[in-house]
Write a structure and sequence with these properties.
- With about 240 residues, the protein is of the alpha/beta class.
- The protein has 2 domains: about 90 residues, Translation factors (Elongation Factor Tu (Ef-tu), domain 3, Beta Barrel), CATH 2.40.30; about 150 residues, Rossmann fold, CATH 3.40.50.80.
- It contains 5 helices and 16 strands.
- A 7-stranded antiparallel beta sheet has the order 4-3-7-1-2-6-5.
- Strand 9, helix 3 and strand 10 form a beta-alpha-beta unit.
- The mean pLDDT is about 90.
């Protein structure tokens, strides 16, 4: 973990409520796709954890949804403003288990960490398929960005207004893949767990206090005991997850 001051390079809307922010600063603590950063915002006690979407040298891209006081405040920030950022938080995805043709599934704001993961897998010569899940057409973002990387992209919408009607699992059923990686809301992760034909890794979203394992506020039960989403997670292997009813 490293604490640094980053400067905002750009901050723009991707949809009515989803924004992309590019920050410039010391990114050396970020070592794997799936890690997150924790942002200190003026007037708010707790930092805001946001997954890493992309990394290019000293430039860090995050994509977030403006839904609460913190993220709404972020959406109003301008280029040139500075943020106190904790980087290198959490354990990311293990790429060594991917096999030759992994599939990446992102639901809503679970899409962003899939982008850096796709880039790294493609660098290894993997054939990467991506399934992006949204409620409706107006919420879709990053479809073209994944295509530009060279991924085979499938989009699903719950209401059928674009792509395949249904959920990410609807598209997954027709695919041949060696391994899966996913991030999204817990109901989606649970559905992927049940529908997947292979092993895989899941990144969990959970409210956090400190973001680096001190407060134990984001603990969850696994087959090997309690683990902290912010420290031992947010990425966990399919085989270690215990679902609560």
């Amino acid at each position: 973990m490293k604490q640094s001051v980053f400067e905002i390079v750009s901050n723009k809307p991707l949809t009515d409520s989803v924004f992309q922010m590019v920050l410039q600063g010391d990114t050396t603590a970020i070592t794997a796709p799936g890690q997150f950063v924790n942002l200190k915002l003026e007037g708010l006690y707790l930092r805001r954890p946001i997954s890493v979407c992309d990394l290019n040298g000293d430039k860090l891209t995050i994509v977030y949804k403006a839904v609460g006081n913190g993220t709404v405040q972020m959406s109003r920030m301008q280029a040139g403003e500075r943020l106190d950022v904790l980087t290198g938080l959490g354990n990311g995805y293990d790429l060594s288990l991917s096999g030759d043709n992994p599939v990446l599934l992102g639901g809503g704001v679970g899409v962003p960490p899939m982008y850096l993961l796709a880039k790294e897998l493609l660098k290894q010569g993997k054939k990467v398929s991506v399934i992006l899940g949204f409620n409706t057409k107006s919420e879709i973002f990053y479809e073209q960005e994944f295509k530009k990387l060279g991924c085979a992209v499938t989009v699903t919408t719950v209401d059928g207004s674009y792509g395949i009607k249904g959920f990410v699992t609807t598209a997954l059923e027709a695919m041949d893949y060696s391994y899966f990686y996913t991030c999204g809301p817990e109901p989606m992760l649970k559905a992927v767990y049940k529908a997947s034909a292979t092993s895989g890794q899941m990144s969990f979203e959970k409210r956090m206090g400190c973001g680096f394992g001190a407060c134990m506020g984001c603990s969850c039960k696994t087959l090997t005991g309690y683990k902290r989403i912010c420290k031992e997670g947010p990425v966990m292997k399919k085989e270690e997850i215990l679902w609560e009813d």
